[in-house]
Specification:
Length: 262
């Protein structure tokens, strides 16, 4: 059977996963704070809108206003999508707008998503849950059971789901992984400070039914544009270039040696 793939809206990223996320998949997007998880999700919904898909965005750590503002900084027309009823933002943080969650339970979450889809009517739906880990903040041992439940119910509806989770090595050690094992794909964001500069990376750690790249890529977040792939982390010149003084010393000693050859 041919796998139908959904473009993520980041062209170079689609290229490393054979064209996109298989329809109906449940993909975990994980990583440290500020690494680009939310922006990745915005691209995924925005691309859906451009292609005629419906979008449901559940936000637990930012308000609806913050999501709409962030999207507009990258030229994404969330406001337009909201007005046309093509996108619904479930504000589980401030409870603003028409859609919110009474409390952060997984039952509430799936019921609200299904209700939102009913309201929007016919069409393929892309779902973002940002973040899913917010639903087990005070009971991390439930992570796996909760994420399994969410995946099972939403899969029956044929939704393609991207769920973010905060990477917490401490809880991963103590309770095992949450969403990662049950997910069909894992997109992992990372960050380091090198040469006095914050660098961000993306790597696909898992994508079922896909011959994906195993390389870690450096990414950039660009105003007016969003997330861009800069290139394989190991090919970045800064990663292998020697400091200028060291290069000069090598060149000098080489020319000295050559000068001594009779
Ligand atoms: N308009 C913009 N232009 C350039 N960079 C931006 C812009 N808006 C946001 N950013 C960058 O994106 C970062 C936020 O990325 P994002 O919200 O996707 O992180 P996250 O992984 O979702 O973090 P968290 O786990 O805290 O929610 C900001 O810290 C900033 O560095
Ligand atoms: Mg975020």
């Amino acid at each position: 059977m041919v796998v139908r793939r959904l473009s993520t809206g980041i062209r170079e990223f689609d290229g490393i996963i054979e064209g996109g996320i298989p329809q109906g998949f449940f993909v975990a997007v994980t990583g440290e704070p500020g690494t680009g998880k939310t922006i990745f999700c915005l691209h995924f919904i925005d691309e859906g809108l451009k292609r005629g898909d419906l979008g449901i965005y559940v936000t637990t750590e930012e308000s609806m206003g913050s999501i709409v503002n962030q999207a507009s900084q990258f030229g994404m027309k969330f406001k337009d999508g909201l007005e046309k009823g093509r996108v619904i933002i479930v504000d589980a943080f401030m409870g603003s707008g028409e859609w919110s969650l009474r409390d952060l339970t997984v039952n509430n979450l799936v019921d609200t998503i299904i209700e939102a889809k009913r309201k929007m009517g016919y069409g393929n739906a892309r779902i973002v849950i940002d973040s899913l880990s917010a639903f087990w903040l005070d009971k991390p041992a439930m992570a796996r059971r909760y994420s399994y439940y969410v995946k099972r119910v939403l899969s029956k509806w044929g939704f393609t789901v991207v769920a973010t989770s905060q990477y917490a090595i401490t809880t991963a050690d103590a309770f095992g992984w949450g969403v990662e094992h049950i997910a069909d794909g894992i997109i992992r964001f990372r960050r380091i400070v090198r040469g006095g500069k914050l660098r961000r990376y993306i790597i696909v750690e898992k994508m079922r039914q896909t011959s994906h790249s195993l390389i870690m890529y450096e990414i950039g977040i660009v105003d007016g544009r969003g997330l861009v792939i800069l290139g394989p982390a190991w090919q970045r010149r800064e990663d292998y270039a020697l400091p200028k003084e060291a290069r000069d010393r090598i060149m000098n000693s080489r020319s000295r040696v050559e000068g001594e050859i009779p």
